[in-house]
Design goal:
Distance between the termini: 20 Å
Number of helices: 9
Low-confidence stretches: 1-88, 108-116
Shape: globular
Length: 409
């Protein structure tokens, strides 16, 4: 039965975020070296992401820096970020700790609220293993939750980069003190470097969407882990260990989950682990789930590619094939499991439906369950993909995953 949560939302009565054309394009798209016209894609001067329409010659690094300053000034001046309130900078840079809340007293009705059945000890719960990372607050949201950032030197990949995290308000509630929480690794589109826009542009609404779906009882209160997608802004690495390049596949599949396990109450089983991504990040999420079904239960892939196409694969066809979602899916089908869930989303104003339908038709069988959700009026951008997740994606993914359970009273 689907886990239920309190029926009130910390974001109630807040206006919905909408794209602001005068501020430039919402986060979206592939980075240089990804998709048709590889290496020729222009990044929007306002938001640092690929614009709508045809790809054009790439802008200079200086112009990209100017673009970041422009969008920050515009948004801070009362535009797209206004609905988060006026104190989202409050406490930025301060240390953030994720101490375990004290559990409620026995017999105090710990299992009441939200219709969730109280439970005893769960052997699948993994308490933080340590060592604790040093997190600094980067954004404070209206409900008191915070987005925090740390620098991770991957023990297995050797790559060092930034990772942002967000915990839902339920994580700090006493009745969940002994419960694990599901983790969603959220990957951006575009370059995914030097920032992850799910963390640095919270007005897109991902955190808000998760909080609202949890409050309604239609979705789970995921811990969001938002890592860098690529090691630089020059190339796209397909979220893979390309020979001679930084091991971005190991970074996402091993080091980033290990960071979450070291610092949060997570589940040992794959039923507590999922990936979500846009465009280039959607490809990585799809590939990781097909490649590591023992680690991840499902993926929400928004407007993504289905085949590796980084120019860095040159002269490494065997290794590229080993990171091809379709070929990995066929191996999973032949081995008869384990079962994984794929939620493809695309907007009616963007292309790519034929590609996703082909992948679903050829690989949506046996242990691979695939939904294809059409976002009416949606385009290739983060705003519309969050809308699709609110309409269908978060609820569908939550049904196949494990949620937190309150302590028995």
């Amino acid at each position: 039965m689907q886990q239920q949560y309190p029926q009130t939302s910390p974001y109630a009565q807040q206006p919905q975020p909408q794209p602001q054309p005068s501020y430039g394009h919402p986060p979206m798209g592939h980075g240089p070296g990804h998709g048709p016209g590889a290496g020729t894609e222009q990044l929007c001067v306002h938001c640092g992401q690929p614009p709508f329409g045809p790809r054009r010659p790439k802008r200079s690094r200086a112009k990209l820096w100017i673009g970041g300053a422009v969008v920050a000034a515009l948004l801070a001046g009362g535009g797209g970020y206004a609905y988060w309130g006026t104190d989202w900078f409050d406490g930025n840079g301060q240390d953030v700790t994720f101490a375990k809340p004290k559990p409620p007293a026995q017999g105090a009705g710990a299992g009441s609220g939200g219709g969730a059945a109280a439970t005893g000890p769960d052997p699948d719960v993994s308490l933080p293993t340590g060592p604790a990372a040093q997190f600094k607050q980067s954004t404070k949201l209206d409900d008191g939750t915070r987005i925090s950032k740390t620098r991770l030197k991957g023990a297995k990949s050797g790559f060092e980069g930034d990772v942002w995290v967000w915990t839902p308000k339920e994580y700090d509630e006493a009745k969940y003190a002994n419960s694990a929480f599901p983790v969603m690794i959220a990957l951006p589109g575009g370059n995914g470097y030097p920032d992850n826009y799910w963390a640095t542009m919270p007005n897109i609404g991902l955190q808000k969407a998760i909080a609202e779906s949890s409050a309604k009882g239609t979705g789970l209160p995921f811990i969001l882990v938002m890592p860098l997608l690529n090691p630089d802004s020059k190339n796209y690495y397909d979220g893979s260990d390309i020979p001679g390049q930084p091991k971005m596949g190991t970074w996402i599949a091993e080091d980033v989950p290990d960071l979450a396990k070291a610092n949060f109450r997570t589940y040992k089983s794959r039923d507590g682990w999922a990936i979500m991504g846009n465009s280039s990040g959607a490809f990585v999420g799809l590939k990781q789930v097909m490649q590591h079904p023992e680690k991840f239960r499902g993926v929400i892939a928004n407007g993504g590619e289905t085949a590796p196409d980084s120019p860095l694969w040159k002269n490494n066809k065997a290794e590229m094939d080993a990171n091809d979602p379709a070929k990995l899916a066929q191996k999973l089908i032949q081995s008869k499991g384990p079962e994984v869930y794929v939620n493809f989303q695309y907007g009616t104003k963007e292309g790519g439906r034929d590609r996703l339908e082909k992948f679903q038709r050829e690989n949506g069988k046996g242990p691979i369950k695939i939904d294809l959700y059409e976002i009416q009026g949606g385009d290739h951008n983060g705003w519309d993909y969050v809308r699709g997740m609110k309409e269908q994606g978060l609820a569908a993914l939550s049904k196949v995953m494990k949620g937190p359970k309150p302590q028995a009273g």
